[in-house]
Design a protein that fits this description.
The protein has 133 residues and is mainly α. It is 92% helix and 0% strand. The protein is built from two helices and no strands.
Length: 133
């Protein structure tokens, strides 16, 4: 049996007992029955507050767990943000270094072209001088 349906059935039975007790006229009941009726009525009215108290306790426990999990998640997010910031800094440095290397490569390429031309010119001049002598 489901806990909720069992609780609803008990609550319904309690209400029926309360209704029956309320129908008893105080002048016709004995002292003992009146005391029992008063206790039953107090128990039934207290039952709702017990349920509400349990719900409140459950809500407080759930809220506490949610708060602790939220704090853990926020801490993890802070750690990830820190790591991301460090990686972003390293990527920026790498991009700067690559840009500098590319600039140097263009400069070196132009020097190589110039030196090849000079080398070709000098080789031709050497050949001319060797052939001339």
């Amino acid at each position: 049996m489901d806990l909720r349906s069992g609780s609803k059935q008990q609550h319904s039975a309690d209400k029926q007992i309360l209704t029956s007790i309320e129908k008893i006229a105080p002048e016709t009941c004995e002292q003992e029955v009146c005391v029992m009726a008063a206790e039953a009525q107090q128990h039934l009215s207290g039952g709702d507050s017990l349920i509400l108290q349990e719900i409140r306790n459950g809500n407080q426990a759930l809220s506490s767990k949610l708060d602790s999990k939220t704090a853990e998640i926020n801490q993890s997010i802070s750690g990830l943000k820190s790591m991301l910031d460090k990686l972003s800094f390293r990527v920026t440095e790498a991009e700067d270094d690559i840009g500098t290397a590319e600039d140097q490569l263009v400069d070196l390429d132009s020097r190589v072209v110039k030196l090849r031309k000079e080398n070709d010119f000098l080789m031709e001049k050497v050949d001319q001088l060797e052939n001339h002598s």
